[in-house]
Amino acid sequence: xxxxxxxxxxxxxxxxxxxxxxxxxxxxxxxxxxxxxxxxxxxxxxxxxxxxxxxxxxxxxxxxxxxxxxxxxxxxxxxxxxxxxxxxxxxxxxxxxxxxxxxxxxxxxxxxxxxxxxxxxxxxxxxxxxxxxxxxxxxxxxxxxxxxxxxxxxxxxxxxxxxxxxxxxxxxxxxxxxxxxxxxxxxxxxxxxxxxxxxxxxxxxxxxxxxxxxxxxxxxxxxxxxxxxxxxxxxxxxxxxxxxxxxxxxxxxxxxxxxxxxxxxxxxxxxxxxxxxxxxxxxxxxxxxxxxxxxxxxxxxxxxxxxxxxxxxxxxxxxxxxxxxxxxxxxxxxxxxxxxxxxxxxxxxxxxxxxxxxxxxxxxxxxxxxxxxxxxxxxxxxxxxxxxxxxxxxxxx
Length: 397
What we know:
mainly beta; 3 helices; twelve-stranded antiparallel beta barrel; eight-stranded mixed beta sheet; 27 strands
């Protein structure tokens, strides 16, 4: 155990520490068997394309510099690097003080095209990196412009995060609570020996945990889960197209393919960076029941996000009686059982309502969501929102 983790443990700052899986692999295999949807369909399909019940997302960072400063507008700054087919891409994620909503600064002319399934605000600006690191030591200078228009620069030095972490199920610390159900895999971490941060021409102090440990770390981590959002789907050729409402007010259109592979039908959306893969089992009378979602990132060996449903979700394009209850489990970056929950689906004359009720860990359990789907002959109109106590008689937070 490194010195900084030992110190945090001694000081009982457990909210910052990663934990193990919420369900062990052996138990997971028993608790989430592959089963058909537990419903009785009362009519034929009312849509020409598979109906997506939720937007899944995932992103793996081979380096993530985390700094917390005394800046009055920003709580945390993350300088994150992704390996892409076109080389390294840096993204600066900054969390607003108070709300902890994250805004991503991306060096793209059209930032909404970057992972459009993510409901985060994006800011287009240059992210300039001077990387003097070697295989053992980090030595970086990153310069960018914040979403508030202030020039910013960080310089960091310290050991490369290489030692595998014993416990990898990392907390979200409340970030983007209203936008994302987020599950983390922190596979390696190190404490930076030096970090400076300047914003708007003023040097900012790096905060200290309990006044002792500087909040300046380097991580290797992957993130994934479910997202809020509103999207439309419509048939197109042999597949379909989804159109997503972005936080900027714009709309992004994504083309999906549909293919039959053995006992499953796969609906896939592929970009240069990642593939969203919704795997549906074939049920009675041609029903398509969602059994698994995977988010696969280019160059990453394991799916960044994998969601398994047991029983499978019903074919949401068909009317069914009663409430269908399924359990779900999320694996991140090959790490099994990092989050678990339930989804409850109810059909009515105009469509389907799904309540997504996370159970564990604690930083996931406080982010339930509700999806409402209105069916059309050529597709569906869908929206997922965060649930709050007034939305549910069960006292959802």
